[in-house]
UniProtKB/TrEMBL annotation:
This is Serine--tRNA ligase. InterPro entries: aa-tRNA-synt_IIb (IPR002314), aa-tRNA-synth_II (IPR006195), aa-tRNA-synth_II/BPL/LPL (IPR045864), Ser-tRNA-ligase_type_1 (IPR002317), Ser-tRNA-synth_1_N (IPR015866), SerRS_1_N_sf (IPR042103), tRNA-bd_arm (IPR010978). Consists of two distinct domains, a catalytic core and a N-terminal extension that is involved in tRNA binding. Transmembrane segments: none annotated. The keyword Nucleus does not apply. The keyword Transmembrane does not apply. ATP binds at R257, R258, E259, V273, H274, Q275, F276, E344, L345, T346, S347. Its EC number is 6.1.1.11. Pfam families: Seryl_tRNA_N, tRNA-synt_2b. Homodimer. The tRNA molecule binds across the dimer. It catalyses: tRNA(Ser) + L-serine + ATP = L-seryl-tRNA(Ser) + AMP + diphosphate + H(+); tRNA(Sec) + L-serine + ATP = L-seryl-tRNA(Sec) + AMP + diphosphate + H(+). The gene is serS. Belongs to the class-II aminoacyl-tRNA synthetase family. Type-1 seryl-tRNA synthetase subfamily.
Amino acid sequence: MIDLKILRDDPERVRVSQRARGEDPGLVDALLAADAIRRSAIVEADSLRSEQKSLGKQVGKASGDEKTALLARGKELAEQVKAAVAKQAEADEQAKAAHLAISNIIESAPAGGEDDYVVLEHVGEPRALDNPKDHLELGESLGLLDMERGAKVSGSRFYFLTGQGALLQLGLLNMAAAKAVASGFSLMIPPVLVRPEVMGGTGFLGAHADEVYHLDKDDDLYLVGTSEVPLAGYHMNEILDLSDGPKRYAGWSTCFRREAGSYGKDTRGIIRVHQFDKIEGFIYCRPEEAEAEHQKLLNWEKDMLGAIEVPYRVIDVAGGDLGSSAARKFDCEAWVPTQNTYRELTSTSNCTTFQARRLSIRYRDEQGKPQVAATLNGTLATTRWIVAILENHQQPDGTVRLPAELAKFVGTDVLAPA
């Protein structure tokens, strides 16, 4: 949720953010109105309760007709207080719904939609490859993955990683885990099923709720699409000790996405699938530290990409392409030779206080007063990276050379037919 103080002090800033996202600026005025009604209802209920309390003291001192009149007034007040409390509860619910409807306030992101990103830098030069094979052809010829049996067992966009393919993913994720721990992250293996309040608190039950797998009936649990979700819920309803600096976690989890609305897109291979593994960096910090932590996350992602030695570019994602929780997002996109373009491998978002406000995650400032924390997240490695590794490091003889740092974790320098 956005900070209501910002809304009250500068509602136009929130309207501008809504327009930049391509969302309804009228929601700002709806929230302002609901907030005013809620505050008025609080004042009314408090005033009646105060009068009721004062009247109670008078009844104890009164007698005769005066006491009878006071008791009659007390009965009237009791009904009025009951009605005012109900009115306040209804106003609270309406204000909360209006509050939840507004996405995070954009901070410095470019204007526009999906195609209006700004390229911040290019790293590395694509190799000249004669008739390159795509990752699926390479993976099948080397015995690394099996899409056909994945579809037989689970349906379209599922797969088996087999033999050295499984070792490649484990090596990649182990390398990411080792780098994360060396950089001060605490490694976590979180649950992949979460309660609705956690999924909703991180902002995934809004416009993109149809991307999320839900276990209904008596379970009412959601399968996570990123360990950002359980890591955000880890400190839900807590006051953190950030006196020694930010808390940094790296979550290793299997992730699940329905990919609703993406039919016909990237159906070949493992670029866009329903299940994959990922290591996600997640940070809790003071709001004034968030921008610097965002740059650190981006640098950790770049270090990982450097270790797999693929050409990539960094983009500043436009406001209209941000998720509801993100105030700003940087993507790192690797070169995919057979597509002759760059494709996203990592994403890092500064969510400012948006998620923590929903999940009631706070810290104490220098005066000991609770304040809302900031949260950030960023991809440190995922299954999709295998696409870039295979295509960029393929050799004319059909084998794939692994970069030296990655090879140490996989246990071989070259992926070759078994």
